[in-house]
Specification:
With 199 residues, the chain is of the alpha+beta class. It has two domains: 8-107, Beta-Lactamase; 113-192, no CATH class. It is built from seven helices and eight strands; from the N terminus they run ββααααβββααββαβ. It has helices at residues 23-29, 33-36, 41-45, 51-62, 109-137, 141-155, 184-187, and strands at residues 8-13, 18-21, 69-75, 81-92, 98-107, 164-167, 172-175, 190-192.
Length: 199
Amino acid sequence: MLEKSNLCVVTLNSDGNIDFINDHLLNKTGYTRQEVFGKNWFRIFIPPQDRNEIKNVFNELMDAKMHDQHTNDILTKKGKQLQIHWNNAILRDANGRVLMTLSIGLDVSEIQRTEETLRRQLQEVTALHGIASAGTESKSIDELIERTTKFLGGTLYSDNFGILIYCKETDELKNHASYRGVSPEWKEKCVKSDIGITG
């Protein structure tokens, strides 16, 4: 049943080596059974920066501590990261000795990406609504720019952004006083309109 499951299934012995891995997990990661059977799970599937943390989770699970559920990234053969939500259990022999771990996981990568996209779109809609409101309530261009910058800082951006004002007479761009994340000296500088990203 585990072999044909549409969930990711893997069992690891006490050394973290793969005793069983199902077709679904192999297909997702691009490996063959011959390439990974008996090999160390952490060296093959866990991103280097996460290995110590995930090994600690594994060791605590082997010691019959918590971590019956855990979410972490794994690597495919091509280096792509997938986020898997695991349900973990330990398998014992007749004497109660821990033999291995059994982990059954669901790939939540797409769910996470969809949530992030929706969150970003909501932020953008909120920002646009705020800018529209500022446009109807502001009594001057300076007030509109100030309110727009403040609103964007609270929704889409946090630092080092703002609005440049174009001076037709000198063909230069100058930071508006509301520009964030720069020194007072930098705010006073003017840039020719054909230089850098503005050119």
